[in-house]
Amino acid sequence: MNYEPVMGLEVHAQLKTQSKIFCGCSTKFDAKENELTCPVCTGMPGCLPVLNKRAVEFAIKMALATHCNINEKSIFARKNYFYPDLPKGYQISQYDKPLAQKGVVEISIDGQVKKIRLHRIHMEEDAGKNIHGTISSYVNLNRAGIPLIEIVSEPDVRSSQEAGAYLRELRSMLRYLEVCDGNMEEGSFRCDVNVSVRPVGQKEFGTRCEVKNINSFRFVEKAIEYEIQRQIEVLESGAKVIQETRLWDSDQNKTFSMRSKEEAHDYRYFPEPDLLPLMIEQHWVEEIKRTLPELASEKKLRFMKMYQLSEYDASQLVQEKFLAQYFESVVELCKEPKLVSNWILSELLREFGPEQVASCPMTPQHLGELLVLITNGTISGKIAKHVFGKMLETGQAPQAIVEKEGLVQVSDHVQIEALVIEVLKEQKAFVDKYLAGQTKLFGFFVGEVMKKSHGKANPAMVNEFLKKKLKGV
Ligand SMILES: [Zn+2]
């Protein structure tokens, strides 16, 4: 029998606010244990939460970018459960009246666009963190009260590849909007996947398992592949898939059962009595809408149209907002977008990751000046690579390096003609072979002339003179 996997994804994204969602404590990542806490986020009785307006603004930004309807009235609710890292005994989240509903995210796989519908986006606070030592366990509450949004998709995802594309798209949007840094290692972008399989053609969904705790795109894809295979094997053996929460073990490359899956009613949700309903006025939403930046998918299309770049090149350049800005700054100086794109994608990204370009020592100004030296014939592309290396080492402007090292391209007719004549004289034997029909030797002569000029001869002129001289010999 053939099976079809069905998946829905839940993403928790940490909002990049300065302070926590219901108190004034800082959200800094690398503080000392329990340094960033107060009576509110440690759940002391009698303390009242106050909602962080910036967190709401950030959540609305993401809701707008994903084409959700923003509810005029949403309600914070208590989600009750006991865990040592949750001193209040409940998490403040949203339940039946979330911030936003019914969105859509477009993903693109091999040029094919697919829409993944969003069920909802709601706001909530993070819990603390348990740290288990050899003898004792500890609780660090710095995370407690960090603002999160949970982005819940409809079960529209059909493969691990689609899941990966969807998550990358969400992360890119959050980073472009500058509402979340998307750092998976530090836990600011986390993903749970609900996986089920059903025989092809069957309408009803199979029983799903939730796989939690996956902290890299690669692991998400692997965990999904594993889970699909496991569920198919369970069904094929005649048994039933049990609804449960499973954890991904990246050392063993498998999922294992963590607990039977809780149902919403287990949490005894009720409206948070310490917070008023969240009322969002339309004019505020409109105001926020006007601040939305051009997102990666739109930018990609614009780059393809405006700069005649291939889809591949454009998608590489827009993977980071700053990288895309960098490209456009260089293009302002050197008006050849394809050349700029090639240099950024091959030379610059060989040295720096896309996220490091923002802080790399090669400024767009300097790279632009270097490329102008190529297009105006001052230096060859080959010499430019050498200069590029020197620029990285010294931080100097390209012009200064070219002058200091005497690298200016030789475009003088007399000099180049002399070099060509010299080479043809020295390589008499090969010239005879060439004239006898071995025309492939042409490249060899070019190489010899370039060598003699220490790479500085203008290659176009070398070609031209060689052709002339070889005809006339
Ligand atoms: Zn606090």
What does this structure look like?
With 473 residues, this protein is of the alpha+beta class. It folds into 3 domains: 3-288, no CATH class; 296-404, no CATH class; 413-472, Arc Repressor Mutant, subunit A, CATH 1.10.10.410. 40% of the residues lie in helices and 21% in strands. It contains 15 helices and 16 strands. The protein has helices spanning 53-65, 160-177, 217-236, 282-290, 296-307, 311-317, 321-333, 337-351, 364-375, 381-394, 398-404, 413-426, 428-435, 442-452, 459-472, and strands at 3-14, 69-70, 73-74, 76-80, 90-94, 100-109, 112-125, 129-132, 137-140, 147-153, 189-199, 209-214, 244-249, 254-260, 270-271, 278-279. The strands form 4 sheets. It has a 9-stranded mixed β-sheet. A 3-stranded antiparallel β-sheet has the order 5-4-15, with no helix packed on it. Helix 9 (364-375) packs antiparallel against helix 10, helix 12 crosses helix 14 and helix 12 crosses helix 15 (459-472). The chain is elongated and about 95 Å long. Bound molecules: zinc ion. Residues 20, 23, 25, 37-38, 40-41, 145 line the site of zinc ion.
